Structures are given as C-alpha cells and as structure tokens.
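Protocol step 6 of 9: fold each sequence in the batch and record its structure tokens directly after the sequence line. For illustration, a two-sequence batch is reproduced in full.

Sequence one:
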Amino acid sequence: MYIREATIDDNAKLIALQARCPQGTTVIVSTINTPDFFARAKVYEDFKVFVACEDSLIIASAACGLRKAIIGNTVETVGHEFQAFVDPQYRGRRIAGELMQAREKYVRKRGAMLSYGLIMEGNKPSMRHIERQGFTRHRTLVMPSIAVFKEVTIAYKGKIRHMLPEDLPRIVSLINDTWKEHEFYEPMTAEEFNRLIVRTPEYNYDNVFLLEEAGEIMACLGFWDWSKVTQVTVKRLSLKMHGMSLLINAARIFRPLPRPPSPGSVLKQIVLTPIGFKDIRYMPAPV
C-alpha cells in the first residue's frame, strides 16, 4: 500500500469509492461529490487530496486545506482535515492513520500552527481513531439548522438586493466587524473575498444578498447550495429516527410540518455564508 496525491484522472474512481462509504448514525447517508470530486476542496486556495492505493486500486482518500484564522487575538495559519474515508473491505489496516500522517506533514510544511477536523456526533470509531493519533476534543459544536418546507413572508424595512462587485469593500468591512472577536474567524480583504467567490463551485455574486437602509449596508447573507457540490442520499434510518419519522408523519395530518427524510431521499441543503450585520435585529430580514 502506498499514498500519493490525487489527480483529476482519479475523479471517477474516487466518486465510486465515496459511494461505497456511507456515514452517519441516526440518518445513514451516502455522500457523493458532484459533478467533480475535487469541488469540495476548491473552497481553499491551498488544498491537497491524498489517496491510498493497493497496486492501481484506490482504497482510501483524505483531504486537507489551509486558511487563516484568529487564534488568541493573532491571525495564524491553520489546517482543516476533512473528507476521509476507507473502502469497507480495507478497514482495520491502519490506512486512515497513514493518510492522517500525510495530511499532517503537508499542513505543517505549509506553516500551520494547528490542525483541526470536525466529526459528527455518534461517530465513535472516528473519534477513537483521532484520539489515537494524538488529537483531543476541543469543543462540541451545535449546528443551527432550519427545516424549510413553505414560503414565509417576513416584514422588513429597507432594500434587499444582490451583491455587486463595487460592494466588496463595504461587505468585507461589515463581515470582519461582525466576527472580529471570535476565535477561528478568518478575516478577509476585499480581494480575498472576491477570490473565494470566484473559486467556490456553484457560487457567485448573485448568491449574496444585501440589506440597505439610506444607502448603508446593514446586513449581508449568502447562500451556498451544498447539494450541487455534494449529493447526500439517505440510505437508512436508525430505529430511533424511524420512530420519530412515524410520529412526525402522523402529526402532519393536523398541522403543517416538514416531511422527515426517508430511504432514497436526496437531501437539499443550503449553507448560509457569509453572514454580517450591524445589529442582530437586521438578520431576519434577508432570510
């Protein structure tokens, strides 16, 4: 077994392997990058995708990217390790550990002062694997989400419009001011934000909305259609989730409720980014 950098020629093989590696515990899903396996990583200017091979067969893959982030009031280079999976037939052979070492070596070489990853709650095998590699859990994150199932009219003041190139300096200033005191925020210049928009698949100026009052930008909100980058298909539900789905479907007879996921469903996911506001009361309007 050997590890090398993935190339565009590996695209079809990586997508096929990814489809054989479902994830999740309550809702078990298949995630497939589309239409290009490397689209997910292109959010980072500096990224690397590694593959583990047995002869010419790709049996595992893992990716990493580098970005700037505020750590203890100082802007540092940090590495993000993501998108790791191993062919089920080859698990238990320390392949994931060797891929992690390859990622660690790369991000250290690029000047990262720390490296991090995100693991879904309940993924005990991945947590134990990470801990064996010397990582420790820093914190538990709660991902806020809204199940959208009907159109809602929201009253607001001001003018909502799409972002224009000439808005870049004011938008970046607004976003930086919103998050400047938060750890792990990545401060940007107008040029850096523009490069992010250009290189992010399925994202452009029309994806960012502004709320103006008297010519002043009071809030901005962007949306990224994640389903155009990663297709998430429900494979099966845990017993607990299946029971909850039955209860929700029964309750839908009496009141409007979102339809719960079911095997075969392709999930539509929208990521709200970036977010900036002068005052929190301005945020409901752009939504």
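Sequence two, same batch, same settings:
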Amino acid sequence: MIIPLNFDFIFEAIFTKKENIDILESFLACYFDMDINDIKGRLKILPRELELESKKAKNKQIDLLLELENETINIELNNKHSDGKKERNIVYACNVHSRSLGYSDNNYSKIKKTIQINLNVDLKNQNNKLIDKYYLRNEEGKILSEKFEIDNLDMVIGRKICYNEYNNKLARWCTVLTAKTEEEFRKYLGDDLMGKETKSKLMDETMKYSSDEDVVALYFEKSREELEYNTLIEEAKQNGLKQGIEQGSVNKSIEIARNFKNIGTDIDTISKATGL
C-alpha cells in the first residue's frame, strides 16, 4: 500500500517544493499537450496566500499557484465535491485573476491569462468528459474573455479511461495521482510520463511519505473521519431525518446535526442534510 498523491498532506508536501518543479513541468506538459522543453525552466511556484478582503477575514491559502510566463495557473485539489467548495474555487480563481496585473500597470489588456485546474476525485460530472472547460460567455455562447478559464479534470473518469487506453497519458496521470498500491503506481507511471531522474524523485518522495509513521497515522485518521461522515450521511438518508422532521422529531435532527458538526462538516451541508 502507498498513500495516494491526492491526499492533501502528500500533495502539498511534494508539489509545492521548488526542488520538485520538474514533476510539475512534466504534468503540465502532458496537460497542455506541450513539449517538455517548451516548459522547462519557465515555470515558477508562487506564494499561495490570497489577499484578505478585510482584517476580520481568516487566512486563505490555495493549493498550488504557478506562473508560466504569460499565464497564471491555479491548481486546486478536490477530494470531496460540494456546492460550497465549487463556489469557493470560483472565488479563488477570481482573486488570482484580479492580482495578475502588476500594481503599477493600469493597462488591463496586458493582464495575464488565469487558468484554474480543479483536480476532482468526487465530482458528479454530467458530461462524462475527462476535462470540462468553462469560460465567461453570453447566452449565444460567445466568449467574453479567453483570459479566464476554469477546467475540471475528472480523475475518476481518467482512471476508467487509462485501463483501456494506456497511451492516454493524462488519464494515466489521473491514476498515478490516485493510486493506492505500489504496483498500480509504478505501472501507470511507466517510463514516458517524465524523465528518468524526475520519475526516480517522484517515486522516492512517494515511498518516503508512505513509510512515515506520522503521515500514515494522519492518512488513516482522515480516512476514518471520512468513513464516519459517509456513514452519517447514509443514516440521515435511510433512517431518520425526513421521517423525524415530518413527525416533529426535532431532537433527532439536532443530534444528527451535532454529529456532523463534531466531524467538521460545514454549516451549509448540515443545514441541507437536516433541514434545520
């Protein structure tokens, strides 16, 4: 067993290190279907902290912010889908785009293109597409600006594709990022997703964290919390909520809401699940 790269701690530990930028170069070369030599040495990792709208606002940090010459690339890892997280990602993308013009430059025609790539593990994708691209457009479909783009990369679909289409490198990346066994990780990493030294580095980093007792404990604790969350959701659907509310069983709803809150569920989700 290995800890998958889409585990939040592992993702941040590996992909935000400047010394691992060659791994990111390999991924983006595949994602944008570019020659690796056209990216090598041009990619920069930027600070991830977003500007606060007020002194009362909490610190906000995006997952990964990159600069590729005239483009700003915001990568967000989404292991669980929710409407709140979707809206949050849009806000983050707008924040990133708004600051991509230099403070001393008032010529907005020079603003850099912003691309947000959402790495989605649990997205309810209605289009059944590996990449779903979104732009600002009018009712007739005319794009207002090509300098603001949000991409949803469905890694579940990617995994399904790569089992039958090994030559689809982006689909294989989806499997590499979500692999939970060393056998699967090595198989789909192959020898052609990145250079030999970069591959060796990624494998070493993955194995290092997968054998770290503290990281393993953190991963299984997170997995347990998610299991409890899913169990509570299922119980709410199957047993008590709708019937309880209809019968005036407010106490049952409050009890379930409290359980949700104890495992860190956001208020909007609790409200929708309990009707409170």
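Proceed to step 7 once all outputs are recorded. Observation for sequence two: The radius of gyration is 21 Å.
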